[in-house]
Amino acid sequence: MAAPRCIENFEQMRKERSKADGYHTNSSLEQEKVEASVGEVYQTFISGSNKIPKLEREKHLGYLNKGLKHLSESYECLDASKPWLCYWILHSLELLGEKISEEHASQVAQFIGKCQHPGGGFGGGPGQYAHLATTYAAVLALSTIGTKEAYSVVNREKLAGFLMRMRSADGGFIMHEGGEIDVRGAYCAAVAARLTNVATPEMFEGTPEWIASCQTYEGGFAGVPGMEAHGGYTFCAVAALVLMGHDRLCDVEALVRWLSNRQMSFEGGFQGRTNKHVDGCYSLWQGGVFPLVHKILNGHGDNAVSTRSWMFDQNALQEYILICCQNVHGGLVDKPGKPRDFYHTCYCLSGLSVAQHFAGGNLATTSVLGESSNELMPVHPVYNIGVDCAFQASKYFSTLSVPKL
């Protein structure tokens, strides 16, 4: 493998800055600090004996399996995010090719069942109010487990009622009773409804148009109309439009321009917003939008779309994740110097999978940086669970009738 392209860029950047007039903003100074820390990691890697990036699979598996069975007191602040923790860990294990035991799968499914609200949907923990975000996480976690017991946890009739109550008159969705409206709600509702086969035309009437109104002058999507474009909201918006079959409402040209400028030329990873720092989680939130854009353009008959690669530097992203985002004890991080957590572990691995697997041509191809053992399982571009998990869940729920509202 050749040396990471970032080292040469880093040296060139330093030379160019030394010739500058000395004017800096707080943002530019902070950016220089990030680049310096990332550059140091790359330089250490280049100076080492092994110049082939390696996915520390066993260390990550140890970290994840331990977290699935026991969490330290430091996770008390995530008491309202327990279905999220289940999803982040289960999906990460799945990407790494790890199957949990039937007994353990049953225990997790039963616990998620305890998070289900009597009025429908899932809360952040047993006895907590239902929330669209934790409902989304619960449905994905159960779909990842993929057993009939797990599928049966979902009370589909009450879920449909909960989703309808979250609707606003203009087609947007509030996150919970009395909560805020933003594009996450529309995406979470769409995923939960489609995967479990409870979606009806009236449930999402006007929703695609409302989502389209969130696209900003930059090309990305904001949480609500008139706000700043953001990577997480952009993924939610585009995925929801694709899921609903209304991707033509999106200004794809502006979207591609904005997305392409979010991959950092030096670090190789993605930033979430204009003038922000690189962050490993945007490997999925930004990188994961490119397969969706590819699908949209293919559907529009765009013959210029590549049949071999996504429209971003896949190797550069793999470099950033494998060299800069792996914690020495397992788990992945935002950027060098940051602590590991299950959130960043999940989305760094998800983004790494997207960068490794291309499925936009006639045949799926892989482009794995480093050893072949670095390869992860492919993810479904809309749901961000395993392709087979998404297929099996859809297959199971499609045999059930859509609940009457």
Account of the 3D structure:
This protein has a two-stranded antiparallel sheet with strand order 1-2. The relative contact order is 0.13. It has helices at about 5-20, 25-45, 55-70, 80-95, 100-115, 130-145, 150, 155-165, 185-195, 205-210, 230-245, 250-260, 280-285, 290-300, 315-325, 340-355, 385-400, and strands at about 355-360, 365. The protein has 17 helices and two strands. The protein is globular, with a radius of gyration of 21 Å. A hairpin with a 6-residue loop joins strand 1 and strand 2. The protein has about 400 residues and is mainly α.
Topology at a glance:
Blueprint: H1 5-18, H2 26-47, H3 57-69, H4 82-95, H5 102-114, H6 132-145, H7 148-152, H8 156-166, H9 183-196, H10 207-212, H11 231-244, H12 252-260, H13 282-285, H14 289-299, H15 314-324, H16 342-356, E1 357-358, E2 365-366, H17 387-398
Antiparallel strand pairs: 1-2
